[in-house]
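We were asked to recover a plausible sequence for a given structure. The inputs and outputs are reproduced exactly as logged, with field labels preserved.

PROBLEM: sequence recovery
POSITIONS: 308
GIVEN STRUCTURE:
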C-alpha cells in the first residue's frame, strides 16, 4: 500500500509518496518540494493572507494529483508554524478537507521537533555522544539534542526565516549592522538552547530540510559534485560553511540568483538561515556538520508504518 504525506510548511509544501517494505522501512516513490509562501505578509500578524491561502490550496491540488498518479491510497497532511499560529489556520484545514479530502493535523512545535528527529534518524547515524539537530523552517526553527539511544531535549522557537525577514528587513546586500541586529535578536531568544549546549557540548550539528537542503546543494556544487537523489546525508566542516557564508553575505540578490545550488525561492531568506547556523556553531564551538535529506515528512512516514 502506498501512502502520501504533505508537510505544509511556512514557505513550501513538501510531498512524500512512499510504500512500506520489510522491517518497517520504506521505499520512496516521489519526494517533491513546492514553493507556497504561506506565511508571506501575514505570519507576524497571525493570519494567512487571501493570496497565500489560494497559493496553499493550489499547491495541495497539485500534490494531490501527483500522489494519486503515483498510486497513493491515502493522503495525510501535517501543518506547522504558519498554520498553528494563524487565526484562520483551521479554516484552511477545513477547506482542504471539504474540497480535496486531505486530512491535515496541525502539530505543536514540540511534536514537530519529535517528527523531525524520527526522520533524521533514518538518514544520518547518531552516535553515543550528544548530537544537535537543527531544522530551519519559514516560521519556526526546531532544535533536538539526541544520541543513538535517547532523545535528550527538544524545543521549537518561532525564529523561522520568513518570520525573521518580516521582523528585521535588510538592505541589498545585507550590512554588517543588520547582521549584528539579527544575531542579537537570535541570541536573546535562544537562551534555553545556549544552556543545553553549555551543559552537553554536542560535537556535531545535523541540519535538515529547507535551508539545509539548499546549503547541502551549494556545498556539493562548490566541490564540483552532484548531490544524487539517493544520498541521504552530506558531511562538511565549519570551515566550508564559513567560506560559503562569507561569500554569500556580501552578494546582492541578483548575484545570489546566479549562485549554483541556491533556488530562487530561498534567495531572499538564505542570509537569515546562515546567520542562525553561525550563531549555533559559535555557541557550541562545533566544527563538524552534516545534512539530512529526511525530516518531518519522513518521520511522519516512519510513525505511520509503526501503526499499520
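RECOVERED SEQUENCE:
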Amino acid at each position: 500500500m502506498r501512502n502520501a504525506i504533505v508537510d505544509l510548511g511556512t514557505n513550501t509544501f513538501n510531498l512524500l509518496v512512499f510504500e512500506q517494505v520489510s522491517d518497517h522501512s520504506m521505499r520512496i516513490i516521489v519526494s517533491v518540494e513546492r514553493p507556497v509562501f504561506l506565511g508571506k505578509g501575514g505570519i507576524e500578524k497571525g493570519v494567512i493572507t487571501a493570496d497565500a491561502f489560494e497559493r496553499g490550496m493550489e499547491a495541495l491540488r497539485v500534490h494531490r494529483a501527483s500522489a494519486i498518479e503515483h498510486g497513493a491510497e491515502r493522503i495525510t497532511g501535517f501543518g506547522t508554524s504558519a498554520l498553528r499560529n494563524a487565526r484562520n489556520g483551521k479554516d484552511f484545514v477545513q477547506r482542504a478537507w471539504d474540497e480535496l479530502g486531505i486530512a491535515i493535523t496541525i502539530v505543536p512545535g514540540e511534536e514537530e521537533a519529535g517528527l523531525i528527529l524520527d526522520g533524521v534518524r533514518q538518514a544520518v547515524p547518531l552516535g553515543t555522544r550528544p548530537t544537535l539537530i537543527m531544522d530551519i523552517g519559514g516560521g519556526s526553527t526546531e532544535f533536538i539534542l539526541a544520541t543513538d539511544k535517547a532523545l535528550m531535549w527538544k524545543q521549537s522557537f518561532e525564529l523561522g526565516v520568513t518570520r525573521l525577514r518580516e521582523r528585521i528587513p535588510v538592505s541589498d546586500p545585507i550590512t554588517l549592522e543588520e547582521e549584528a541586529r539579527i544575531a542579537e535578536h537570535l541570541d536573546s531568544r535562544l537562551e534555553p538552547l545556549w544552556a543545553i549546549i553549555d551543559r552537553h557540548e554536542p560535537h556535531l550539528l545535523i541540519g535538515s530540510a529547507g535551508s539545509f537542503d539548499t546549503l547541502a546543494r551549494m556545498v556539493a556544487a562548490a566541490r564540483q559534485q552532484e548531490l544524487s537523489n539517493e544520498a541521504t546525508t552530506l558531511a562538511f566542516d565549519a570551515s566550508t560553511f564559513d567560506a560559503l557564508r562569507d561569500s554569500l553575505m556580501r552578494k546582492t540578490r541578483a548575484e545570489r540568483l546566479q549562485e549554483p545550488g541556491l533556488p530562487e525561492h530561498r534567495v531572499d531568506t538564505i542570509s537569515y538561515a546562515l546567520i542562525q547556523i553561525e550563531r549555533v556553531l559559535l555557541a557550541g564551538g562545533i566544527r563538524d556538520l552534516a545534512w539530512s535529506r529526511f525530516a518531518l515528512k519522513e518521520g511522519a512516514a516512519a510513525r505511520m508504518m509503526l501503526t499499520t
